Amino acid sequence: MKRVAATVGVLALALGLAACSSSTSGTGVSNAPSAADSTAPVTITMWHGQSDDAAKAITALSAEYMKEHPNVTINVQPGASNTDDLKQKIAAGFVAGDYPDISYAYGSWAGVLAQSGKVLDITSQIQDPAVGWNDFPAAARETATVDGKTFAMPAVVGNLAVIYNKALFDAAGVAYPTNDWTWDDFRTIAKKLTNADKKIYGTAYSVAGNEDTTWHMWPLLWQNGGSILSDDQQTATFNSDAGVKALEYLRSLAVDDKSMYLDQTGEKYGALFLDGRIGMQISGPWNLYDLQQRKANYGVVQLPGTNGDHQTISGSDIWALFDHGDANRAKAAFDFTNWLTQPAQDAQWNIALGNMPLRASEKNTAAFAQFVKDYPGGEIFLANFANAKQPRPTVAGYDEMSQNVGKAISAVLQGQGSAKDALDQAAAKSADALTS
Asked: What is the pTM of this model?
């Protein structure tokens, strides 16, 4: 769930140029050609941005699809060395006219991608009952849909909960958290687990100033009754009293209690948790694979609650579909991603790699039963989707706003300035991006 701030401006500029040259409507979502020949030879390109086991899995699945559909050739490419770098690669491709039919993308890019005028409108296709659109978590569906137009299929889903180190709890004589715990409980436990002499921290937070920093605060904002944006999605409201309260709470752990490890890179706290240096991390199911590999003694519990509200946030990555004015390519791109996200294939893509299943119906499959056996806590993350009541906004300005908020959070957690001033400044810096 990492983001690269340096490419935001490049992407916005490139997508702006693409949109200016597009004849599409103000939604920025292109209408896919309707007349397609299901038997005609067709070649599509897919960028996946994956490495190692994930890259092998998607290549194998593509080969399986081509065997079943001999008229379709899928040119599978990494596209970039990692998913972060796909953002700039897509932007450059839009300008040069050399972009894929399908690309993996972070959900936080949804708004700016949709604004480009280069994405397919698959709104009518997903109405087919065979697609099973409502089987995906609501947050995943909403991430793939901008201004009522759907242009992507969900790729990976997850949500934030608390993963805790049972050995550290036992050593400190602290009871394991339960589903009815509160943020006051979380703070008390973090203080008890912290041991400065042994360099053990109760919890951790990324202060890299990117989306990983930002989205960890949104559940606290929501639980306190706040919102990220106004109803018309054009004005920042995260700097409300609820937002200030959320950031002040985080500051109390970092500055007052010194029970929070501040990760300058956003890359270290997961490894420190595995090494027994952090007692609780607010994270997602993407950590289960590493935990299983290390045979870690851990537990998973939903986020602490505010007045009984345990609201969390769901992070959904997507398979974005792009338009090339070719009906056969459009059909092939949608048909393949639809096939890829069905339970049989998802068992080989997500579940086999330690990710959450894409669909609610998969909880009853043998593949998910094996997943829970291999990755304890997976069933808790699946149930936690019920607490994911709101998605991140899919407006084009979200990505830039996220960087501003991330920097504000990072400064406050490091004792620089007040929560109110920092969030007000982030809102002011984000105004142009949200209204452009």
From this structure: 0.86
